Amino acid sequence: MKTTRALALLATTLLTTALASATGPIGTAATTSPSTVLAAGTSLRLTVAHGETPSSGTPRTVTLECPPYGGTATTHPDPVTACRLVDSVNGDLNRLDVDPGVCTDLYDPYTVTASGTYRGHPLSFRHTYGNHCVLLRTTGAVFDF
């Protein structure tokens, strides 16, 4: 009898957990359906600044839009390659390592930022690279502007 109650309680708990994760908190509807997330594109504001902060020197800024937005507002010089690279790491720009070649040890920092959405999800990124060579070898076309 105790085993039957325990199994019933476990089944109820698992079902409730599965429903909550699929629809959001109990009593609320999910705000984004899987088809909406897949249909959502990527829209990012990217900056490159020569220095240790995003506002160092005269920061350069571009907009990168990836399908399905169509890129009408894209000001990035190579949006196709940049979008492919962002997609290759599922929007986790910390995982970019495009060309891990050799660069000098000269410290001449560049700080980059990215903010916006990746496939409908918020994205925020900031990193300072030791020099321009390290920046380009790590991020490739994403921050090459």
**Strands of the largest sheet, in order across it?**
2-1-3-4
What's the count of strands? 4
SS element count, helices: 4
Q: Return the string of H and E elements.
A: HHEEHEEH
Low-confidence stretches: 1-38
Structural category = alpha+beta
What percent of residues are in strands?
A: 15-25%
Shape: globular
Radius of gyration: 21 Å
Q: How can the largest sheet be summarized?
A: 4 strands, antiparallel
What's the pLDDT, averaged over the residues? 79
- Distance between the terminal alpha carbons, to the nearest Å? 70 Å
Helix content: 25-40%
Describe this structure in words.
- By secondary structure, the protein is an alpha+beta fold.
- Helices cover 32% and strands 23% of the residues.
- It is built from 4 helices and 4 strands; from the N terminus they run H-H-E-E-H-E-E-H.
- A 4-stranded antiparallel β-sheet has the order 2-1-3-4.
- Strand 3 and strand 4 form a beta hairpin.
- The longest helix has 22 residues, at 2-23.
- Residues 1-38 have low confidence and may be disordered.
